[in-house]
Design a protein that fits this description.
three-stranded antiparallel beta sheet; mainly beta; five-stranded antiparallel beta sheet; Immunoglobulin-like
Length: 178
């Protein structure tokens, strides 16, 4: 990397202070990617260093860089004994954007009898409504999923003895409309 930086300095007459402040080596490692993280790039069109969010960077990659509507890993706290369907915040698919999705969700219930379950949810938007299929592995957590006509994932839960907390972690890959 040092050679490239030096060549860059020579080719573009940028002083060492600017390059040193952008050096990758010596920086603290980030192990938790967030779509709002910033990445330093060289904008060839502008002939200048620029910053870009991780979300904007990955959306421009194509072929494996993601799709509009993809959901990065997100966490949601569930309620005990949720008898009527309630929204899983941030677990939604926009009708005008998403045609289909494949999501994975891990469920953890901290109660007298701890429960751990992995769920795969696949969905297809068929114009005015959605169809989903669900496959499960692990304990029967008692969490049931449904989807609204607007593409919002909802859940219900059991009444767990000694309930302390419950969490759903989920992410999803999508395909777009059109």
């Amino acid at each position: 990397m040092g050679r490239i930086q030096r060549k860059y300095i020579a080719d573009n007459a940028i002083d060492n202070t600017k390059i040193d402040s952008a050096a990758i080596t010596g920086q603290t490692a980030e192990t938790s990617a967030d779509d709002n993280d910033l990445i330093l790039i060289y904008d060839d069109t502008a002939g200048a260093l620029r910053k870009m969010t991780r979300a904007n960077f990955t959306s421009g990659l194509g072929g494996g860089g993601g799709s509009t509507g993809d959901i990065s890993e997100t966490s949601f706290s569930i309620a005990n004994n949720q008898s009527s369907a309630a929204n899983v915040t941030s677990f939604a698919f926009a009708n005008g954007t998403v045609r289909g999705f494949k999501a994975i969700a891990s469920i953890e219930i901290d109660a007298t009898a701890d429960l751990f379950e992995m769920v795969e949810i696949m969905g297809i938007q068929k114009g005015s409504d959605w169809d989903i299929s669900i496959s499960r592995n692990g304990d029967d957590s008692g969490i049931e999923f449904s989807i609204t006509t607007a593409g919002q994932i909802q859940y219900t839960s059991n009444n767990y003895a000694g309930f302390v907390s419950g969490k759903i972690k989920f992410r999803s890959d999508t395909t777009t409309v059109g």
